[in-house]
Amino acid sequence: MDKKITIISGASRGIGRAVSLRLAHEGHFVIVLARNAEEIGELEHEIDEAGGKALAIACDISDEKQVEEAVNQVIRDFKRIDCVVNNAGIGVFKHADQLEADDWDRVMDINVKGSFLLTKAVLPHMKAVGKGHILGIASDVSKRTFAGGSLYTASKYAQHAFFESLRREVRSLGIKVSVVYPGLVDTYFHGEAQGEVKQAEYLHADDIAQAVSYILNTPPHVLVDEIMLHPMCQEW
Ligand code: NAP
Predict the structure, then answer these.
(1) Which of helix, strand or coil describes residue 215?
(2) Which end of the chain is more exposed for a tag (fewer CB within 10 A), N or C?
(3) What domains lie within the chain, and their CATH numbers?
(4) pLDDT tens digits for 78-127?
(5) Which residues contact 73 (CB under 8 A, 6 or more apart)?
(6) Whether the predicted model's global pTM rises above the 0.85 cut
(7) Binding-site residues, ligand 1, Cβ < 6 A
(8) Are 12 and 36 in contact (CB under 8 A)?
């Protein structure tokens, strides 16, 4: 198998789906993870029909056992993992006194613990071969805050800190860690359907996929620490 074996979390919709389609087109064997088995099954089929290679594994990224089983299945089938795109994420936007403890747990479990669990599960396999590339899809609000964003921005700041620390732990082992920080992107994330007029000026999901592709296609001696992208309509 000379194709790169690449796991993408949150692949059923939005950015994760665009990243999966682009990387499959570029020759990666993409392992597409999300909870909705039907949607990732359809994505696997769509990629296969287009001449690419994909495997759908239904997985809740916040569940340690499910994440370990998904990674074990990839290792059983392919013997290695080259790249991981930690993309799965949700947002809950309320003022702090309106947030429920359950909101807090859900967002932190998916956005922060999910990135940690998938990274923890793949690291031994990358360490064993002395190479690999771990990517995080964080957010521009990993670096700025806004009213109503206390929970979501806390989760994205935490994701930023996690990947930045991780880079310092594994760079000397030959493992790259890169983070993409998008501004507004036209996906299902904002409670609208992708393609709605309201989001017409936002970044397209494939703009993020192109950034991911650039990062993953750098030569071995180059490490892209981070890329931040905004639509022209959004002030930073
Ligand atoms: P989206 O269209 O709502 O897609 C979210 C994806 O995450 C779906 O595939 C969903 O699949 C998956 N997901 C959610 N909970 C999951 C779980 N527990 N386990 C596994 N997968 C899960 O949103 P998006 O805009 O593409 O968001 C992708 C990432 O980009 C997120 O981390 C988000 O924070 C970040 N981001 C988005 C924007 C934006 O403006 N859209 C800007 C900056 C950063 P299932 O529901 O099937 O599990």
Answers:
(1) helix
(2) C
(3) 5-229 (3.40.50.720)
(4) 999 999 999 999 999 999 999 999 999 999 999 999 999 999 999 999 99
(5) 57
(6) yes
(7) 9-16, 34-36, 39, 60-62, 87-90, 110, 137, 139, 182, 184-185, 187-189
(8) yes
